[in-house]
Design goal:
heterodimer, A: alpha+beta, 5-stranded antiparallel β-sheet, 4-stranded antiparallel β-sheet, 7 helices, B: alpha+beta, 6-stranded antiparallel β-sheet, 49% helix, elongated, disordered N terminus
């Protein structure tokens, strides 16, 4: 225990952890302390070094006193640029921003928030995480949010990988970088397929008891708005003429309450296809302002409507195991 | 390579700055390169400028390759080689502009920038003056600004310039430390191209009519002298250069130098100690006041009393010497030298020979002959002119008896001829006579225009004795310098004319500055470095220098780093103290949950550790106050740190 504490403060241990350790996501605000910022010359920086050495040799060979001045000035510039590049990255605060859920195949936008509490601007920070890349500048004493667009493939939680924050400012001769692994995940819904809504009497059993009642097909009249009514059904024009907010009423054979049941899907559909189908139905039902519920093995989402309801259904689909 | 992606368009503002930087680096070279190079370079630059402004397509690779090939052929045709210094520099310049034409990606930017630095370095082959240094600084500044601009393309140009200026200002101290402390090595490391040291103005190994008067129009400085104590009078300021004994009727030449072991000069008066800073002239001789009694350890003395260096002087050189203006140079004139000093070509100048024979027959001894000759010069109404008439085969006869117009080389040459014809060993000495003391810094400046020639005769018992026939014929030349001696309206160097008082004082100031520049910047060589370190009381070996260099650069960088990172530390202290506090609690099993704010956490800890509750709440309050409050103050931070330090869960 004690030895471990001592080791934790040594650079060697840090290096060991950095190379071999598993990088657990860091919750909260990550401070890019000096120990987290690494710096090495870029390829151009190495060429610059070689050029300076050549110039030094030339100055010695031809006894060029001003050649020494130029060579040493450039050498000084190279050395000073280490400090400037380091300063451009160190002491930044990085925290996780918002992530909107997306459908599989779309790009998830991971928002990272950079906070610069120091009195100088941070220029040209390059963010990279796998294929995703972004660039931003954080002015002095300001916040900047940057979106990293990560292409999604599978449904479920998508954890943001280790993000490399790097900078080559000001001369491009040095590259300072740091690794950040914010605790950020995006919810990826199953990709909806293109199936139409099921007819009420088909596999998607809507229940016998509601074959007649409020539906969505034929308009029959208006009634006062209730909280559970879909905004799609508000009669805006009629409401404008009356004191009340009015909801349009429809009748139809297609019942207003639909149950999307895993079990009633064709037996030959495999799991992901079923989830895609169900996702599609949830979207369509919400679009048409229906009451709908979802039955998955082990989970049932009761009837409901509205965006929170839709998201709950999609989340269950996204996180379905089995 | 990372640049293998599709080339992105280069942002125009930094690219314009880069082009300006490249043009600045090339600018001083336009003065010496062949005309066609200027034309080609300008054309390439205009072409690139047009392409940038109109976002045109860059020329194809094969075309650029062809242009490179044509440029190389052009250089070859101009110089008959593409090796060597000048052709190399021209190729570098053309390459830089051709590279600008294929600048597509980030990588090319750096190539252009680095090539510009090299071209700026190459400028120092031709000039290392203060203005050149200023132009170099400007070039580095502009090119660096362009690099800054490319690394942050959205910034306004002014900010790039500011950043570049700030970085250069910070690189300055590092540069100074490296310049003064980097262990110096005397170059060259290997053979340098033949044309590296082109002939510079100055005296040469031969003297024929016109060779010294050709120098009289030159303002260039030959060397500078700093006397310890009062300098000798102007009439004694004979700076000895090459000695010529070999005459073919038209041209005087130096003999083969032979080294002498002892100095062989008896001082006849007070000694003068002085330091000479000699401009490079690509010859071996080093100038000393007649006659040297102490010479630098690296130098040698020839039998002609000429101080020489073992290698040609190709960089500015500084040396200490002592001389005695009144002397007896009787030591070791060997019979060969004396025989040489009597030799005359057959069949030249019959009238002079007859005159000399007459003197020999009528006068008792050598010194009487010399006195007679000096009287002859004094009485013959010679005219001192910078533009003497052309002389034929019997040049001495024509000068002495017909034209009577000449420059110091005519006087010296004819005098030595007369002496030899009369049987007195004599030879021509070339060098400089006089020198002006710059009132600003006290250095005496000797210019090419002060070049002079005089005679030396051998007198038994007295040794080699200086006789200046010019002084006899035109005394003002030696007493007041060439300006007084030359007739009015002669083509004297502008700055040597007497009627520009203000110009002269301006020049004195400028030359004093240039001298400091030469002494401390251009003349800073391994010797000077050793001197400076010894003066500082440091052992001047390379280990000590390396250690000094390392620690001083490290210290400077630390100061720069502290300056750059100022304003961050205080805020950091608050966060550090809080994290340390959390750490201590975590070890006691009370780790902060990720979503827990400072007050919630403190509340929970206070409930768990009732004895410490006051401290814990105080720490949390201080932390929140300093971290999120309007302004942090030092006392509160100190208290927070102390509380955390003393806190035991």
């Amino acid at each position: 225990m004690n030895l471990d504490r001592v080791l934790q403060y040594s650079q060697a241990y840090n290096f060991y952890r950095w190379v071999f350790g598993r990088h657990a996501p860091e919750p909260g605000v990550v401070f890019l302390s000096q120990r987290r910022v690494y710096i090495l010359p870029t390829r151009h920086g190495l060429i610059f070094g070689v050029a300076v050495v050549l110039m030094l040799i030339g100055s010695i060979n031809y006894n060029l006193s001003l050649g020494y001045v130029l060579t040493f000035l450039l050498a000084g510039l190279g050395i000073v640029s280490i400090l400037h590049t380091f300063r451009n990255l160190a002491h930044l605060y990085v925290s996780a921003g918002r992530v909107e859920p997306v459908f599989a195949g779309d790009t998830a936008q991971f928002q990272l928030v950079f906070e610069n509490k120091s009195g100088f601007d941070r220029h040209s920070l390059d963010l990279a995480c796998g294929e995703a890349a972004a660039n931003c500048t954080v002015p002095a004493c300001a916040h900047r949010a940057v979106n990293l667009s990560v292409k999604t493939e599978k449904r479920g939680w998508l954890q943001l990988g280790r993000v490399t924050v790097a900078t080559r400012f000001p001369l491009g001769l040095m590259r300072a970088w740091s690794y950040v692994q914010p605790d950020m995940r995006a919810l990826v819904y199953p990709r909806p397929d293109t199936a139409p809504l099921p007819p009420p009497h088909s596999e998607a059993d809507s229940g016998d008891e509601i074959s007649i009642g409020a539906g969505t097909d034929d308009f029959v009249g208006l009634r006062p708005y209730q909280d559970s009514d879909s905004p799609h059904h508000i009669a805006w024009k009629a409401s404008a003429r009356s004191d009340l907010l009015l909801t349009k009423l429809f009748t139809g054979r297609a019942a207003s309450e639909l149950w999307f049941d895993w079990e009633h899907l064709p037996a030959n559909l495999h799991t992901e296809a079923r989830l895609s189908r169900l996702a599609r139905w949830v979207l369509l039902a919400e679009e048409r302002g229906l009451h709908y519920g979802l039955k998955l093995p082990g989970v049932t989402v009761p009837l409901g409507e509205g965006l929170p309801h839709r998201e709950r259904c999609l989340k269950e689909l996204a996180l379905h195991h089995g | 390579m990372a640049d293998a992606k599709a080339p992105e368009a280069l942002p125009l503002p930094p690219f314009s700055v880069l082009i300006a930087g490249a043009a600045l680096a090339v600018a001083p070279h336009t003065l010496w390169v062949p005309f066609w190079v200027n034309v080609v370079a300008t054309a390439l630059l205009c072409w690139r400028g047009t392409l940038s402004l109109r976002a045109g397509k860059l020329p194809a690779r094969w075309l650029l390759f062809l242009l490179t090939l044509i440029s190389s052929v052009g250089v070859y045709l101009s110089y008959r080689t593409i090796m060597g210094r000048d052709p190399g520099v021209i190729l570098l310049v053309l390459l830089l502009f051709l590279k600008l034409l294929e600048t597509r990606a980030r990588r090319d930017i750096f190539v252009v920038a680095f090539l510009s630095y090299f071209v700026a370095l190459a400028d120092f082959f031709y000039s290392q003056s203060i203005p050149t240094a200023g132009l170099m600084l400007l070039t580095v500044f502009v090119v660096t600004s362009a690099l800054v601009g490319f690394s942050a393309p959205q910034r306004p140009l002014v900010d790039d310039l500011k950043t570049a200026g700030r970085m250069l200002a910070q690189a300055g101290p590092v540069m100074l430390l490296l310049f003064f402390l980097f262990p110096r090595v005397q170059g060259p490391l290997w053979g340098v191209p033949q044309d590296a040291y082109t002939a510079s103005t100055g005296l040469s190994e031969t003297m024929s009519p016109g060779s010294i008067s050709g120098l009289s129009a030159s303002d260039a400085i030959a060397f500078r002298v700093k006397f310890e104590g009062t300098p000798p009078s102007r009439a004694q300021l004979y700076w000895r250069g090459p000695v010529m004994s070999d005459f073919d009727g038209l041209t005087w030449r130096v003999g083969l130098p032979q080294l002498r072991r002892n100095i062989g000069v008896e001082p006849g008066g007070p000694q003068a100690d002085y330091e000479v800073t000699l401009e490079p002239h690509n010859r071996n001789w080093m100038f000393a006041l007649e006659m040297p009694t102490r010479i630098p350890s690296t130098a040698r003395l020839t039998t002609d009393y000429l101080v020489i260096s073992l290698t040609p002087i190709r960089s500015r050189m500084r040396y200490q010497m002592s001389s005695t203006p009144q002397f007896k140079a009787s030591g070791g004139a060997n019979p060969q030298d004396l025989a040489m000093a009597l030799r005359l070509p057959r069949g030249f100048n019959p009238r002079s020979q007859a005159l000399a024979r007459e003197w020999r027959e009528s006068l008792p001894d050598d010194s009487a002959i010399i006195r007679r000759a000096i009287e002859f010069y004094r009485g013959s109404r010679f005219e001192y002119t910078l533009e003497p008439p052309l002389l034929g085969r019997n040049s001495v006869d024509e000068f002495l008896f017909d034209t009577k117009q000449g420059f110091c080389e005519h006087f010296a040459s004819s005098f030595v001829f007369l002496m030899r014809a009369a049987g007195v060993p004599a030879r021509v000495v070339t060098g400089y006579q006089g020198g002006d003391t710059n009132p600003v810094d006290g250095y005496m400046v000797i210019r090419q225009a002060d070049a002079h020639a005089w005679a030396e005769v051998w007198l038994a018992g007295n040794g080699w004795t200086r006789v200046d026939p010019t002084a006899a014929a035109v005394p003002v030349r030696v007493e007041f310098g060439i300006t007084a001696a030359a007739p009015k309206g002669a083509e004297l160097p502008l700055l040597m004319r007497t009627n520009f008082g203000w110009l002269k004082s301006l020049r004195n100031n400028w030359e004093a500055l240039t001298n400091q520049w030469n002494q401390w910047v251009l003349g800073y060589n391994p010797d000077r470095q050793r001197e400076m370190l010894s003066w500082l009381g440091v052992q001047p070996d390379w280990e000590t220098m390396t250690m000094m260099l390392f620690w001083s650069v490290a210290g400077t960088l630390l100061l720069i780093a502290l300056w750059l990172l100022r304003g961050i530390r205080r805020e950091d202290a608050v966060q550090r103290a809080w994290l340390r506090f959390c750490d201590k609690l975590a070890r006691a099993g009370l780790a902060r949950a990720s979503a827990e704010g400072p007050f919630d956490y403190a509340g929970r800890v206070a409930r768990q550790l009732p004895l410490r509750s006051d401290t814990v709440r105080a720490i949390a309050a201080l932390y929140v106050d300093q971290r999120y409050g309007p302004a942090a103050d030092g006392d509160s931070i100190g208290r927070l740190q102390r509380l955390v330090r003393e806190f035991r869960p």
